[in-house]
Design a protein that fits this description.
alpha/beta, eight-stranded mixed sheet, four-stranded antiparallel sheet, globular, disordered C terminus
Length: 344
């Protein structure tokens, strides 16, 4: 088990705003979480819930302007990434924190060979000679399951399939043995068979290398198979966080429950319709003063309009270490009897 006293990444109160001609968009709102060594944290939510913007804010990949990181700390070990100089931060990206983006075709440079794009970070961050970097590049391509790796160094991205390009992106992200790997929906653009291969690859690499991983996705089915802990985001904030089995067994936030109900099931009536979450995620043009999910929530009451709920502990002692939720409504526990619920 990871050493809980020494998280590899500790994020506190992260807030990011986009300045636009129409006003400010509050994209990330007071987000706090940690990542233990060797842990895989799944981050889930609909498009527009703030998942990718939060993770790009961590290593300041967002263009400024329009992005403005208003507050927070992002501690990588004993260093705050938000306080680093651009030069120091450039040394961290790739070396300490690897990033795998959603679309490998737009992430890889089409005019450079795959080999040159793997060799570059090895020479930049690890100071390897060209020959040593090429040997390491071959090892990395073999590690991610690309056959005939040595000859493929001279190939260009368009000569690889979508799944192979994603493997190349993972190889680049792993090149310098980072402490943290952030994967932003890396299987979304791939067909189901290739998705399964990439997920198996990540499991194997995590076991071999022992690195901490943040896996961003809208697919709870993927999270169920690979994550240790899950963080659910909505309206640019964390609405629920729990160990993966606890979250699936005892979801506390109405949004989490709604997400779980949208998962297709192989059992049930043939003509049963898939459940959907009515409405759209909010566009936050002002700081949150009420629950962002209230317009779509079947458990809405006066308190939801009056204030934005803070995260409270469900189980596990403290916020962030067990199961916590940001909701005024208290969900019934699945083990409670119907009689108890009737009098609750």
């Amino acid at each position: 088990m990871a050493d809980q006293a020494l998280p590899v990444l500790d994020v506190r109160g992260l807030t990011t705003v986009f300045r636009t001609r129409g006003g400010e968009i509050h994209a990330v709102n007071d987000v706090s979480f940690h990542l233990d060594r060797g842990e895989l944290l799944g981050v889930v939510g609909e498009s527009g819930s703030g998942k990718s913007v939060t993770m790009m804010s961590l290593i300041r990949l967002l263009p400024s302007p329009p992005a403005d990181i208003r507050s927070g700390k992002v501690m990588l070990g004993d260093r705050d990434l938000l306080q680093m100089s651009p030069e120091d931060l450039r040394r961290v990206r790739g070396a300490k924190v690897g990033f795998v983006f959603q679309d490998p075709m737009t992430s890889l440079n089409p005019v450079f060979t795959v080999g040159s794009q793997i060799v570059e970070p090895l020479r930049e961050h690890m100071g390897l000679s060209k020959a040593d970097a090429e040997l390491r590049a071959v090892e990395l391509l073999e590690l991610v399951g690309i056959p005939d790796a040595k000859s493929r160094l001279k190939a260009y991205p368009h000569q690889f399939s979508g799944g192979m390009r994603q493997r190349v992106m993972i190889a680049i992200a792993l090149a310098c043995d980072p402490d943290v790997l952030i994967a932003d929906e890396p299987t979304t653009a791939l067909d189901v068979t290739i998705q399964a291969q990439i997920l198996e690859l990540v499991k194997e690499l995590r076991h071999k290398l022992g690195m901490a991983i943040i896996w961003i996705t809208h697919d709870l089915g993927v999270i169920a198979g690979i994550a240790d802990r899950v963080m659910v985001m909505y309206g640019g904030q964390v609405v629920e966080q729990a160990p993966v089995r606890e979250l699936f067994a005892n979801p506390q936030h109405p949004y989490t429950r709604a997400l779980l109900q949208t998962i297709p099931r192989i059992t049930g009536a043939r003509d049963a319709r898939l459940k959907v979450i009515e409405g759209q995620p909010p566009i936050l043009t002002a700081a949150l003063t009420a629950c962002p999910f209230r317009a779509r929530c079947e458990h809405r009451h006066d308190a939801c309009d009056a204030s934005n709920p803070a995260r409270r502990v469900v189980s596990g002692g403290v916020v962030g270490r067990g199961h916590d939720v940001a909701c005024h409504w208290q969900a019934p526990h699945p083990d409670r009897t119907k009689a108890e619920l009737a009098h609750a």
